[in-house]
Amino acid sequence: MRNKRIRAANNKGGRRSTDFISEMPDDLLLIIMSLLPIKDAVVTSCLSTRWRSLWLHLITLNIDGGVSLAKIATDRHLLVPERIKFVRQVNCMLDSYNQPKVQDFRIRYDFDESYKLIIDAWLQFAVDKSVENLELDLTNCNQKLRSTYECYAFPIRLSHRSIGHLYKWPTAKFAIIEIPNLRKLFLKSVNMKGRTVQQILANSPNLETLSLHGAGRLKYIHAGGKKLELKHIEIMYCPAINFICLNDFNLVSFTYKGPEIELVLSNLPNLKVLDIDEGVTSLENNVFSQIASCLSYLQVLSLDIHCPKESLKLATIPELPMVKKLKLSIGAQKDDCLLEFTSIAEACPSLEVFTIELHWFSPIRRRKKVRHAAEHPHEHLKLLEFVGYYGRVSDLELALYVINNASALEKIFIDPRGYTRRGTTTVEASLKAEEAARSFAKRQLEISMPHSRGVELVIL
Asked: Which domain holds residue 428?
């Protein structure tokens, strides 16, 4: 009788209660589960008999210790017990996983070099499963890169073949890294030497993306040859690096952020996107001479300029005929005039999007007199993105340069948030400064806008 009453209630009014999720096909459920951290996906095995082993069919293992990292961030005494707990959970999951292949394998947790043997085993698991996309993010709980001596070292022997047992103590002479199905490799706070990179490039013929953050022992990268499938390279904050040579392959995008280095780029005809930050000496030492060979076909260029000297002159900027998107990240002080940097934009006759990102060390408004740069038409420029607009005269000067010279301008996007050097300032003071910046932007720019051309002003 009870079951009849339930069915009657479900069918009342011609309606039937339906569990849409349970009616979904397994393939669709697996797509949904692949978007979850693996820990949450495993928990679904408790829902019903059907769900018990469903997660085992995932080919994406996203092992992210976000909740645990949040605990450690508030209480560092929890670091060791939380690490032990996390290791047990991961080992349990990997022991249960019985699929022959894993497409994406990602570990994000606060681990240092003392966990090397454990992490080595996890990487070997991924390689044994023919991993395609591999990410290892070992930054600390506050997402800061580790010092070199604390970083886990990428193994010098890692192979899909059963050769690992041949050498009990691997050395440089017997090092071999083979990950034949690898397409993307992302490493953060992982030590790696130049010869290790060479091994990966030589024995991962399908590798398309290489991203290294905080590889403390990396001193050089030399990649070249038509056989390389590399399309995207990102090298960031590797303190020991001094030389990068890339030549003769189909590279599409290259990002370098770190100390000044010897940079050689040659015969890279498909290179369209370039992002360069060589610290305080970037422009002083003429970064354009380092990238001269690829200037004729670049379409997106980003430059970081730290603490520019007052004596810096940029009159010899080479032409950048194909650049459609230009981003300048500038560190500045007081209320210094920054119009000198418009010469980089003037070297881009095809420019469509101009992004200015200001990092002010001393957000002080001092000058009252507005200077104007010489006129230079930007016939294709449609969008100005201005991040870090604080209301100084120097900010207004850059905005007016674009307003007065871009006849096709459609939109100005102003973002005053979070780009002052905070130092001792409080959160409340920062929010108050941002609100003041919005007020200045509105008052300064609205009266300067060419409303007859229908230019839209957006202030966040």
From this structure: 324-460
- The residue behind tokens 């009870």 is 2
Q: Is residue 269 part of a domain?
A: no
Q: How many CB atoms lie within 10 A of CB 104?
A: 18
Q: Is residue 50 part of a domain?
A: no
Whether 363 shows a pLDDT value over 70: the answer reads no
Kindly state whether residue 210 falls inside one of the protein's structural domains: no
pLDDT in tens, 386-436: 998 888 888 889 999 999 999 999 999 999 875 555 444 677 777 787 888
Number of domains in the chain: 1
* CB-CB contact of 324 with 296 (8 Å): no
Q: Give domain status of residue 232, yes or no.
A: no
Longest pairwise C-alpha distance within the chain: 91
> Could you please report the per-residue DSSP string of 171-201?
-GGG-EEE-TT--EEEEESEE--HHHHHHHH
User: How far is CA 263 from each of CA 20, 58, 249, 270, 280, rounded to the nearest angstrom?
Assistant: 56, 41, 16, 18, 16
Q: In which residue are the tokens 């600390």 written?
A: 140
pLDDT at 455 exceeding the cut of 70? yes
H helix or E strand, kind and range, residue 351: none
On the question of pLDDT at 119 being above 90, the answer is: yes
What's the whole-model pTM score?
0.84
Output the CA torsion sign for 438, 440, 443, 447: negative
